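User: Can you recover a sequence for this backbone? Please restate the input before giving your answer.

Assistant: Of course. Working from this structure:
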């Protein structure tokens, strides 16, 4: 068995060969469609990237223009003015109601524009009282601090063996 004997190829019938040829034609058509779609997608991505780059360039150019071209205008503060509520209008008769409805709608919108917003007054904040610790409580707190410091030194000592050891 120096060479392995190859099996002879299976012979296809005419019908099978026709189906195979039709499948090849169909597969080639699908490949062409997919390649065209990929080409269009790539083109679209390139156009979007170019558009974004153009926008960035325009923004950079607008920011680099000298400040004298566009002087900065600071908005003026409006004074807070309380206006009296609008007086109620007398109700029109039925014959004038259709014509006056549009006028009343316009007048109500203009009256709301005339009123200025006035924020509610703030309440002053109270300062927190600082509690002083009496003599007994101070000794308790120092004892607690001492225990806390001892435990922390133990924890650091277990993590870092040379921590807290001072040689003279």
């Amino acid at each position: 068995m120096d060479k392995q004997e190859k099996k002879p190829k299976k012979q296809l019938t005419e019908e099978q060969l026709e189906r195979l040829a039709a499948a090849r034609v169909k597969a080639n058509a699908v490949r062409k469609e997919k390649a065209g779609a990929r080409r269009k997608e790539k083109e679209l991505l390139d156009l979007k990237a170019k558009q974004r780059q153009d926008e960035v360039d325009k923004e950079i150019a607008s920011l680099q223009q000298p400040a004298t071209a566009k002087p900065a205008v600071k908005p003026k503060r409006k004074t807070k003015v309380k206006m009296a509520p609008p007086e109620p209008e007398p109700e029109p008769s039925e014959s004038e109601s259709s014509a006056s409805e549009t006028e009343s709608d316009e007048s109500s919108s203009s009256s709301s524009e005339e009123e200025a917003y006035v924020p509610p007054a703030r309440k002053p904040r109270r300062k927190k009282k600082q509690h002083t610790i009496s003599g007994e409580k101070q000794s308790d707190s120092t004892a607690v601090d001492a225990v806390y410091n001892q435990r922390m030194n133990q924890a650091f000592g277990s993590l870092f063996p040379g921590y807290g050891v001072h040689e003279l």
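That completes the design. The two ends are 87 Å apart (CA to CA).
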